[in-house]
What does this fold into?
Amino acid sequence: MKSRWQPPFSPCDRFVLQKNYIDFALAESFGEHIAMVVILFRSKLTDVAGDDYGAMAAQMDAHARTFPGFIDVKAFKAEDGERLTLVWWQDEDTLRVWAKDVRHREAQKLGREKWYQYYKIDVAQVIRSNHFDRDRVSAGAHHSDRT
It folds into this structure.
């Protein structure tokens, strides 16, 4: 089954995402060990998840971006309706702050009560990162391959 991108942010948000990622990459390049974590959130919505779900999802997306340690988010939707949202956080401490946030907890409660048929959350630690950016290479930057 083919999945397709559904980024939950506008092109204007890319500046903030790029800045957060660059901050992380700079720390990495100076030898700072950062145990970045990725949340893999798989879910399927109920038939009653409509505009109210979309509004709450947009609010939570915007709210998460204000938290220190938030790096990036990407969302996908499969043809069968299952969704996969990947969220990168600087480390477990910054993720923990988000997990305990009151607004986030309220959204989770509503999700369980009416919007989600099911969901599964996995938390993974990034052990290796490899970057390539054609524009940066063309401008004289070097390929980064950290192992």
Q: What stands out?
A: The chain has one domain: 3-146. The two ends are 32 Å apart (CA to CA). DSSP finds five helices and seven strands in the chain. Strands lie at 3-5, 37-45, 70-78, 83-89, 116-125, 129-131, 144-146.
